[in-house]
């Protein structure tokens, strides 16, 4: 039973990879299940056995996108460590995710497929908000510990992450610019931390 299951998994992975390639190159609306099957090297029946519709296949791609996103942001707040050090770890994880070629490919597919579908766009926004909740929880925990000002934690988390996306995500997605080199990534992260902490950190009382 194990060998057939492994073969099934390989076919499913091939179908998803083919769909990502076809959606990226030709767009969601133009791409057909026939073309995806041909690119994956499987029959159309096999494709439909795994994914009843093109929408279901697209949803699987979204799931992979969000899964890769949330895996990078699992950092808990610690009252024993400086805020800047903790924030750097969070932003470095975010930067690493946005520099991953597979993640960028998935993001391009997702964004391109939403252009003519407000429903899909809203679904992406909702999922992205869920996946960034870990960052929001970190901000809220630091506020409860009296180290960050009592602003809307969702707003603050989104704001600092947007500082990274302005340099390391949107230019790559919309303009085809290359991913940032290591020194530039570090500079963007340090600058984002400067702005965030200048606006929200509560100065420690002098001893």
From TrEMBL:
Q: Which InterPro entries match?
A: DNA-bd_HTH_TetR-type_CS, Homeodomain-like_sf, HTH-type_TetR-like_transc_reg, HTH_TetR, Tet_transcr_reg_TetR-rel_C_sf, TetR_C_Proteobacteria
- In its keyword annotation, does this UniProt entry include Membrane? no
Q: One Pfam family, short name please? A: TetR_N
Its keywords, alphabetically, are: DNA-binding, Transcription, Transcription regulation
**GO molecular-function term, one example from the UniProt record:** transcription cis-regulatory region binding
Q: Where is the HTH tetR-type domain?
A: 9-69
- Transmembrane stretches in the record are none
UniProt DNA-binding residue ranges: 32-51
- Do you know which PROSITE patterns this protein is assigned to? HTH_TETR_1, HTH_TETR_2
Q: What is this protein called?
A: DNA-binding transcriptional regulator, AcrR family
Gene source species: Pseudomonas brenneri
């Amino acid at each position: 039973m194990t060998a057939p299951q492994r073969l099934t998994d390989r076919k499913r992975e091939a179908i998803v990879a083919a769909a990502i390639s076809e959606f990226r190159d030709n767009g969601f609306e133009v791409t057909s299940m026939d073309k995806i099957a041909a690119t994956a090297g499987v029959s159309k029946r096999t494709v439909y056995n795994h994914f009843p519709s093109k929408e279901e296949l697209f949803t699987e791609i979204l799931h992979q996108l969000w899964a890769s996103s949330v895996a990078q942001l699992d950092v808990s707040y610690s009252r024993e460590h400086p805020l800047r050090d903790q924030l750097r770890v969070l932003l470095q994880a975010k930067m690493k995710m946005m520099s991953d070629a597979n993640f960028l490919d998935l993001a391009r597919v997702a964004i391109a497929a939403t252009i003519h579908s407000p429903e899909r766009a809203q679904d992406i926004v909702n999922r992205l908000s869920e996946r960034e909740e870990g960052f929001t929880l970190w901000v809220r925990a630091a506020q409860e510990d009296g180290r960050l000002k009592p602003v809307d934690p969702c707003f603050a988390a989104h704001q600092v992450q947007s500082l990274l996306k302005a340099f390391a995500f949107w230019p790559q997605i919309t303009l085809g610019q290359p991913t940032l080199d290591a020194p530039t990534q570090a500079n963007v992260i340090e600058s984002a931390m400067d702005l965030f902490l200048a606006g929200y950190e509560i100065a420690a009382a002098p001893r």
